[in-house]
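An instance noted here:
***
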Amino acid sequence: MIPVITTERLVLRPFAPDDLPALAVLHAEESFWWYPLRRGMSQEETKDFLSRVIGRYDSDGIGLEAVEDRASGTMIGWAGLAVPHFLPEILPAIEVGWRLAESHRGRGLATEAGSAAVDWGFTAGGLERIVSIYEPENTPSGRVMERLGFTHERTTSDTPRGRTVYVMELTRGRWEDRANGARG
């Protein structure tokens, strides 16, 4: 079951086919897909993306979710847990990821969405380890991963594009230690 997760400012919810128009607007932003595509996505690419994400809810039992601004209900991006099929060398694995509209970056929303997904993964999801992957030049995503407690696991190349990526990881034990430290 794909969860609906509510945070102070966000709602993460499963995608639906009728999300295509709003998602296509987000995906058309060049900066939304700068890493790894270096361009925005077309309407057809977005349609394929959405179909793939929804299909993986059944095949993988987990998947990315639409991120809505809680106050307005507007879709501002996506985030959540997914199987990183694009990097087979690290499988089996579950990755946390996020992408937000440029107008919603720099306000801690990626950290808020990523934290909510990680917390769900280690509690209700029963995971023992979560990874997160980024290109070294994408320092904002790297900083979010560090804030969430991820540490460097390996440097490799992503298979489709051959670009260097950092694979970061967070184990349940380290997550629990951080959570207990925050309470204590």
Remarks:
- Residues 5-183 form a domain with the Aminopeptidase fold (CATH 3.40.630.30).
- The longest helix spans residues 43-59.
